[in-house]
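By way of example, we now present a protein record of this kind:
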Amino acid sequence: MEVLDAMCGLGCEPTIRTYNSLVGGLCYVGRLEEALELLKKLKDSPLTLDIYIFTIVLDGFCKVGRTEATTIFHDAIGMGLSPTTFTYNALLNGHCKEGNLLKAFALLMEMCGNNDGAVEGRTATRR
C-alpha cells in the first residue's frame, strides 16, 4: 500500500492493472478484508473495473472457504461483466471445497446455459 501512496504522491496514476496486482498480493498473503475493501472503493472510482479484479478477490475468498465469494461473483455480473473460465473455475472449486456439490452443479449448468464461451472442452471434461 505504501508503494501505491508513493506512486500517487509522484503524480503517477495507478491503472486497473496496478490494482489487480495489488489486490492479488493482498489475497496471496491472506489480507482478504483489505482486498475486499479496496475493491469496494474502486467501484466508486472513475476507473473501469474488469472481471479480473473480481476473479482475484473471489478466488482468494474461495481458497479459504469464505462464502462472500458468491456475493463478489454476483456483484461482477451486476456490473455487466462477463465471467471467464477462471472466474467460474474459482467459484466451482470454492463450492466443492465447502462440500456444496449442489451449488457447484447448478453453477456448472448456468455456465453451460450461458453460451458465452466460458465452457471450453477442457473445462467440461476436466472435472
In short: The mean pLDDT is 88.
